[in-house]
Fold:
Amino acid sequence: MTVVKTCFDKILPWEINRPQRMMSFGDQARAVFVFRKMWITGSTLQVRFLEGSAEQKTLVIEQAAWWSEHANLNFDFNDAANADIRIAFDSRDGAWSYIGTDASRIPQHLPTMNLGFMDGGTAAHEFGHAIGLAHEHQNPAGGIEWNEQAVIQDLSGPPNNWDEATIRHNVLNKYSIDQIRGTEFDPDSIMLYFFPDSWVSNGPGTSANEILSNLDKAFIASADAYPGASPAATELPVIDLDGTTANIGAPGEEDLFRFEVGNAGRHTIETGGQTDVVMKLFGPDNQNLLIAEDDDGGAGRNSKITADLLPGAYFVQIRHYNSRSGTGDYSIRVST
Ligand SMILES: [Zn+2]
Structure:
């Protein structure tokens, strides 16, 4: 029996059976990114410790900064009641995190991350999830072929005691994707866990990577993730019959819009045109608080979100569905 500490990707219950679309990258930076779960570039994410010793907290703050040194994201460890990321240290619950903006869907008294152990770079690994990264071993272009029997046998026992479905979800399954082209596997990524030789049928196992790889750093700072230039929010009028025209000028580009709701009530935000964009709505007065997301709910392949909104400022993040090569014009409008 090989005891392996591995990490559990928390998936929202209603998404368990939904194929996940991933972002992937070509020659320079390679990583597995759940592009739908990305925060707005330039955001400051508030973090609250639900418990923990001074020593644990110091280590977490230190390792979170490994990402914020490169990504255009900041962490504010202010223990705010409405913090975006909430950390527990329950040693009976392993190490896990919700991915990116999924944390917005979790009730505020509950953790969005658990650090049941903190070996090596565990906290940095979980913060990778918290900003939208997935497991490198589930990269569909991944180099690992599993010895499934050995994996299932080992993870069925302590300390994981996982059933087969859980083992398949966390380890054996690759992400299902229609967008991956020629990405390579990064054996040095901090998003890769240690796997023993006995688990891998096409070569040696993997090593535990305790620091960010050069590709991790390059990727998270790249235009495909959280680049240095934050998108400037374009102000949208409410009830704009013609819509505001915009365009995704480069693959992976993120567009940001802002609008004010003066009177509470039902609002519809929708895109128009031939470009297949995906939309996320955040607010009120908080660009980290996800309200809704949509891909093809509008006319054709357009996005549409209808929601009852309180007065305040709202933020709309638009990206192309095809993060690797998609560009094009579209329009966006808000109506009541
Ligand atoms: Zn993980």
Remarks:
- Residues 41 and 226 are 5 Å apart (CA to CA).
- The radius of gyration is 20 Å.
- The pocket of zinc ion is lined by residues 7, 9, 125, 129, 135 (CB under 6 Å).
- The longest strand covers residues 312-320.
